[in-house]
C-alpha cells in the first residue's frame, strides 16, 4: 500500500520517556517524509534507540504521540506490524536454524511479501542459504537480520545501528544494500553513531543529544550551518610548548582554533589561504610544523561544534 | 473419469500442503523441533539418560541373590553339619575368635557345642536377621541329628513382575523425566530467547503471540510421547515392567502431567533474563521434588509431619498416579486426588505465568 506523498511517513510529537534516573527522550518532535532515508545521529545514550523503539511499538512513551503511515499503535497495532520492517540492535537469531529456515519463519508472519529465495538474493546470502546462523560472520548475520526486516515488504523500515561492530568491508557491503532499498521507494529510519554512515545514507539527518534533537537538515545543510568547510589539524616540534590560540584564530580564513590531543585543530572556510598563512606565520616565528592533516568538514564536526564533544566519546 | 479431474485431485492437496507449511504456527513448531534435534545434549538428557539410569539400577537390583547368612561354629563336626544348609556361610573358629567376630559384626551368630550333645547359640535377639539365622541354624542342627518334619511341605517361589524394584523405579523415572523435560524444555528455551533479544524481535513482527506459546505445547506433546514410549517400552522389553492399566489412560495421565510441568516451566521463565538465573530457579523448584516425591524410594517413608507437603508436590502426585496406573492397573477415575493436585498446579501456574510473562 503506497502512502500518499503529502502524508508524512512518521509524525512524532512531544515524545517523552524517562527511566528511573535519566530522561531518555525529552519532548521530541520529528517528522519523516515518505520515501526518504532519515538518519538519527548521536552518541551512545543520546536516546536514539529509545525513540526508535517507541516508534516500533516496543516501548510505551510517558507522553506524546506517534503516528506512522497515518496509523497509531493504540488502535492499529496489527496493521502497523504488517507494514513495518524492524531490525533491532543486537538481536541474536537462533543459531541452530539455517538462513533459509529463519527467513521462512519470519515470512510466515506476514500477509504479503517477496518469496524467501528472493529475499536471500536481495541480501546476497545465496551461498549461505543452507548454512546455520551460528556459522555466519558478523556481516552475514547483520544481512540476515536485514532480510528478516524485509520479508514483509515493509513500507517503513527501521534500522537500529545496522553496522555497529562490523569490519569496514562488511560495513560498506551493508551500505550498498541499504542504498539499494532506498531506490525502491520505501521510507527508512536509521540510527547510527557513525557520522560517515549518516552522511552517506541519509537524505536528512537529525542530530540527537541528551534526548533532544539539536540539529536537523540534509547532511550538506548541517555542515554548511557551522560556516566552515575544512578542518586543518597540525602538530609542532616541541609540542609541549603551547602556541597561542589567539594568533592562530587571527590567521586568514580561520574561524576557530582548538587544542586537541597534543596538536591543534583549525576550522577554516578557505583551505588554501589558511594553510598558506599558517606556514608563513610559523616560519616567521621559527616554529617547525611536524604534521599536517586536512579534511572536509563532516557531521562529526557539526556535532563537535554543537556540543563540544565527539560522537564517539564514551 | 477425465484426465482433468485427475490433475485437479493432484494439484489441490499440493497447494494446501504448501499453505499449511507456510502457516506461522507450523513454522514456529518446526523451529522448536529443529532446535531440539540439533542440540545433541538435550536429546541425550531427555531420551538416553533415563534409559541408562533405568538399565543401571535395574541391573543392580534385579537378581539380588537370596541373602547368605554368615555364621561361625566352634568344632569341625558342628561346622560340617551346618554347611549342608546352602543359605548359611559357615566359618570354623575357636571360641575366642568366634566371639570377637560376633562383636565386630562379621558374623551374626556363633554356634558352640555344649556338654551332653547340646548346642548354645550366641546372637543378638534384637536383630531380626540374627533371629532368622537362629531358626535356620537350629533347624539344620535338628535335621542333621535325625529330626523329621511331621507335616511335609514344599516351596513355590513367587517373583512376580510388578513388585520388584525395577517396577517401582520405572514410573518414578518416567515422572522425573516428564518434570525435567517440561520445566527445562520450556524454561531454558524461553529465557534463552529473551536473553538474546529474540523474543523482542519476534514481537516486533506480526507473529501472533499465543502461537509462540502454542508451538512449545505442540512440540512438547510430540516429544512427550516419544519420551514415554522409549522409557516404558525399554522397561517392558528388557525388564518386563508391566503396564496394567489402559494405555490410553496412561497417555492422558502423561499428557496432563507434562502440561502441568510445562506450565511450571513457563512460570519460572516468565521474567528471568539470564540462563544462570533460570537454572538457579529451576533447581530450587525441582530439588524438593527430586528428594521428596519418591522417585527412587517410597515417599511414605518421610515422617507424618512432612506428608501434607510431600503430597502437595506435583511430582509426588504424578509418580503415585503412574505407579498405581502401571503397576496395579488402577483406572483414572480412582486417581481423583492425584489428578486434582496435578491439574491444580497446571491451572495456577499457567494463569500466574500469563499474568507475569514479559516478552522483553
Entry keywords:
heterodimer, A: 314 residues, alpha/beta, 6-stranded mixed β-sheet, B: 360 residues, mainly alpha, 4 strands, 6% strand, elongated, disordered N terminus
Short structural summary:
The complex is a heterodimer of chains A (314) and B (360). With 314 residues, chain A is α/β, with parallel strands linked by helices. Chain A has helices at residues 48-55, 73-83, 99-107, 116-122, 138-150, 168-183, 195-201, 219-225, 245-249, 271-284, 299-307, and strands at residues 10-18, 23-32, 37-41, 63-68, 84-87, 156-160, 187-192, 204-209, 212-217, 230-236, 254-260, 263-268, 289-296.
Question: Could you explain the architecture of this structure?
Answer:
The complex is a heterodimer of chains A (314) and B (360). Chain A has 314 residues and is α/β, with parallel strands linked by helices. Chain A is 34% helix and 27% strand. In chain A, β6 (156-160), α6 and β7 form a beta-alpha-beta unit. The model of chain A has no long low-confidence stretch (mean pLDDT 88). Chain B is mainly alpha-helical and 360 residues long. Chain B has helices at residues 3-21, 24-37, 40-62, 76-82, 95-104, 128-144, 165-195, 198-203, 209-239, 247-268, 275-292, 307-312, 314-328, 336-356, and strands at residues 69-73, 88-92, 109-113, 119-123. In chain B, α4 (76-82) links the parallel β1 and β2. The radius of gyration of chain B is 30 Å and the shape is elongated. Classes of the chains: A alpha/beta (314), B mainly alpha (360). The A-B interface holds A 56-58, 78, 81-82, 84, 86, 88, 90-94, 96-97, 101, 104-110, 148, 152 and B 22-24, 26-28, 30-31, 34-35, 38-39, 193, 196-198, 200-201, 203-207, 360.
Amino acid at each position: 500500500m503506497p502512502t500518499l506523498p503529502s502524508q508524512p511517513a512518521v509524525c512524532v510529537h512531544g515524545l517523552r520517556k524517562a527511566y528511573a534516573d535519566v530522561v531518555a527522550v525529552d519532548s521530541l518532535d520529528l517528522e519523516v517524509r515518505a520515501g526518504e532515508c532519515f538518519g538519527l545521529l548521536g552518541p551512545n545514550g543520546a536516546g536514539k534507540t529509545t525513540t526508535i523503539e517507541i516508534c516500533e511499538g516496543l516501548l510505551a512513551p510517558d507522553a506524546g504521540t506517534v503516528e506512522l503511515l497515518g496509523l497509531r499503535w493504540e488502535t492499529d497495532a496489527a496493521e502497523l506490524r504488517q507494514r513495518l520492517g524492524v531490525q533491532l540492535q543486537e538481536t541474536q537469531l537462533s543459531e541452530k536454524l539455517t538462513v533459509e529456515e529463519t527467513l521462512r519463519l519470519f515470512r510466515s508472519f506476514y500477509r504479503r511479501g517477496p518469496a524467501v529465495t528472493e529475499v536471500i538474493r536481495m541480501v546476497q546470502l545465496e551461498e549461505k542459504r543452507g548454512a546455520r546462523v551460528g556459522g555466519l560472520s558478523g556481516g552475514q548475520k547483520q544481512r540476515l537480520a536485514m532480510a528478516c526486516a524485509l520479508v514483509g515488504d515493509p513500507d517503513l523500515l527501521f534500522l537500529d545501528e545496522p553496522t555497529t561492530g562490523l569490519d569496514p568491508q562488511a560495513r560498506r557491503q551493508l551500505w550498498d544494500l541499504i542504498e539499494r532499498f532506498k531506490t525502491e521507494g520505501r521510507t527508512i529510519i536509521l540510527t547510527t553513531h557513525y557520522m560517515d554512515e549518516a552522511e552517506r545514507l541519509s537524505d536528512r539527518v537529525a542530530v540527537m543529544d541528551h534526548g533532544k534533537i539539536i540539529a536537523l537538515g540534509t547532511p550538506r545543510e548541517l555542515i554548511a550551518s557551522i560556516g566552515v568547510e575544512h578542518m586543518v589539524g597540525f602538530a609542532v616540534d616541541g609540542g609541549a610548548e603551547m602556541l597561542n590560540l589567539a594568533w592562530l584564530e587571527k590567521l586568514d580564513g580561520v574561524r576557530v582554533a582548538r587544542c586537541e590531543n597534543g596538536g591543534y585543530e583549525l576550522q577554516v572556510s578557505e583551505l588554501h589561504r589558511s594553510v598558506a598563512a599558517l606556514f608563513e606565520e610559523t616560519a616567521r616565528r621559527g616554529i617547525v610544523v611536524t604534521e599536517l592533516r586536512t579534511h572536509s568538514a563532516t557531521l562529526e564536526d557539526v556535532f563537535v561544534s554543537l556540543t563540544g564533544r565527539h560522537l564517539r566519546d564514551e | 473419469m477425465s484426465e482433468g479431474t485427475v490433475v485437479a485431485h493432484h494439484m489441490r492437496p499440493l497447494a494446501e500442503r504448501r499453505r499449511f507449511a507456510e502457516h506461522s504456527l507450523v513454522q514456529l513448531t518446526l523451529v522448536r523441533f529443529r532446535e531440539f534435534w540439533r542440540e545433541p545434549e538435550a536429546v541425550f538428557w531427555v531420551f538416553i539418560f533415563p534409559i541408562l539410569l533405568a538399565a543401571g539400577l535395574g541391573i543392580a537390583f534385579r537378581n539380588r541373590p537370596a541373602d547368605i547368612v554368615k555364621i561361625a561354629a566352634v568344632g569341625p563336626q558342628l561346622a560340617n553339619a551346618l554347611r549342608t544348609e546352602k543359605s548359611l556361610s559357615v566359618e570354623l573358629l575357636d571360641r575366642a575368635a568366634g566371639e570377637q567376630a560376633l562383636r565386630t559384626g562379621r558374623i551374626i551368630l556363633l554356634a558352640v557345642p555344649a556338654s551332653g550333645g547340646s548346642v548354645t547359640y550366641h546372637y543378638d535377639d534384637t536383630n531380626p536377621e540374627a533371629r532368622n539365622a537362629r531358626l535356620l541354624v537350629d533347624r539344620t542342627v535338628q535335621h542333621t541329628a535325625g529330626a523329621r518334619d511331621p507335616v511335609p511341605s514344599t516351596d513355590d517361589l513367587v517373583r512376580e513382575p510388578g513388585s520388584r524394584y525395577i517396577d517401582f523405579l520405572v514410573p518414578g523415572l518416567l515422572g522425573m523425566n516428564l518434570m525435567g523435560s517440561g520445566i527445562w524444555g520450556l524454561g531454558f528455551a524461553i529465557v534463552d530467547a529473551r536473553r538474546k533479544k529474540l523474543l523482542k524481535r519476534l514481537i516486533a513482527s506480526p507473529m501472533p503471540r499465543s502461537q509462540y506459546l502454542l508451538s512449545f505445547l505442540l512440540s512438547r506433546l510430540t516429544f512427550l510421547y516419544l519420551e514415554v514410549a522409549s522409557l516404558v517400552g525399554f522397561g517392558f522389553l528388557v525388564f518386563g515392567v508391566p503396564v496394567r492399566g489402559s494405555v490410553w489412560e496412561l497417555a492422558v495421565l502423561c499428557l496432563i502431567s507434562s502440561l502441568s510441568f510445562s506450565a511450571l516451566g513457563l512460570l519460572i521463565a516468565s521474567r528471568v533474563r539470564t540462563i544462570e538465573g533460570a537454572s538457579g530457579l529451576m533447581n530450587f523448584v525441582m530439588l524438593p521434588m527430586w528428594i521428596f516425591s519418591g522417585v527412587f524410594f517410597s515417599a511414605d517413608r518421610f515422617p507424618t509431619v512432612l506428608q501434607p507437603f510431600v503430597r502437595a508436590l506435583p511430582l509426588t502426585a504424578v509418580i503415585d498416579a503412574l505407579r498405581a496406573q502401571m503397576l496395579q492397573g488402577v483406572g483414572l477415575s480412582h486417581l481423583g486426588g492425584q489428578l486434582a493436585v496435578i491439574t491444580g498446579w497446571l491451572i495456577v501456574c499457567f494463569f500466574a505465568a500469563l499474568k507475569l510473562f514479559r516478552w522483553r
